[in-house]
Amino acid sequence: MAIELLNPTQIEQMRPAGAFVADVLTTLLATVEVGTDLLELDALAHKMIKERGAESCYIDYAPSFGRGPFGKVLCTSVNDAVLHGLPHTYRVKDGDLVSFDFAVSVDGWVCDSAVSTIVGTPRDEDQKLIATTELALARAIEVARPGSKIGDIGAVIGETAREAGYSGNTQFGGHGVGRTMHGDPHIPNDGRAGRGFPLKPGLVIAIEPWLLNSTDEIVMDPDGWTIRSADGSRGAHSEHTIAITDGDPIVMTARS
């Protein structure tokens, strides 16, 4: 495991990437509405990347678990899709639960974030699902301090999910962030408190709880990317890139 610790100057250099990721997600949230095509949203994100002089972390991404390269700059997961949703021709419908996941490199530094929203008329169960992922993320960020360990992050995410009646899947989780999108350490969405790698100042990680409404089993679409619930229930995803410091963690991708 090669875990990189950044110095305060390097963390400051990451801030523009985090601010840009937050800006794109804020723009997408304000843009998506009933009738919006997923490909239009990807094109908007692509346009913003080009105008900023940033570099997509997704378009050429070809990991072992995907059927790459991804070919788009934005993950758009709708309803029972929860992760790695490959944008395609689909017009958002009233009541759809849409998740955006976005990562870019700005001046050589990467930040990564995700958010879920309901378009049009909300359903109570969807609102609860999104709220639980956001609460799990907030609680995880709060424990991400020197003296804690990776297991403390996973434990609080898992506890938050179970308190709300959900069972989480641990096949995909958070990760180290820096010069590349996915680095060590892996940040599971469940775990045992007090176990794992100790959190130290300079560690930059993406924490990303995601939940499905009534299962923890997943299946992959024929596109080789889009991950859905095995039972057709809806999913939600929340993610921020944070930096561990001597004091409070810095949320690099905080949206205003």
| Domains, number | 1
Name the overall outline: globular
Pick out the low-confidence regions.
Answer: none
CATH superfamily: Creatinase/methionine aminopeptidase superfamily
Number of strands: 14
Termini Cα gap: 34 Å
Give helix % range. Answer: 25-40%
Which class best fits the helix and strand makeup? alpha+beta
CATH fold group: Creatine Amidinohydrolase
SSE series: HHEEEEEHHEEEEEEEEE
Mean pLDDT: 97
How large a portion of the residues is in β-strands, by DSSP E? Answer: 15-25%
Under CATH at level 1, the class stands as Alpha Beta
Largest sheet: 5 strands, antiparallel
Strand numbers in spatial order across the main sheet? 7-6-8-13-14
What is the oligomer described by this structure?
A: single chain
CATH architecture term: Alpha-Beta Complex
Q: Output the number of helix runs.
A: 4
What are the main properties of this structure?
256 residues, alpha+beta, Creatine Amidinohydrolase, five-stranded antiparallel beta sheet, four-stranded antiparallel beta sheet, 4 helices, 14 strands, 29% helix
Description:
It is a single chain. With 256 residues, the protein is an alpha+beta fold. It has one domain: Creatinase/methionine aminopeptidase superfamily (Creatine Amidinohydrolase, Alpha-Beta Complex). The chain is 29% helix and 23% strand. It contains four helices and 14 strands. The strands form four sheets. The protein has a five-stranded antiparallel β-sheet with strand order 7-6-8-13-14. Strands 1, 2, 4 and 5 form a four-stranded antiparallel β-sheet that branches. Strand 6 and strand 7 form a beta hairpin. Helix 3 packs antiparallel against helix 4. The radius of gyration is 17 Å and the shape is globular.
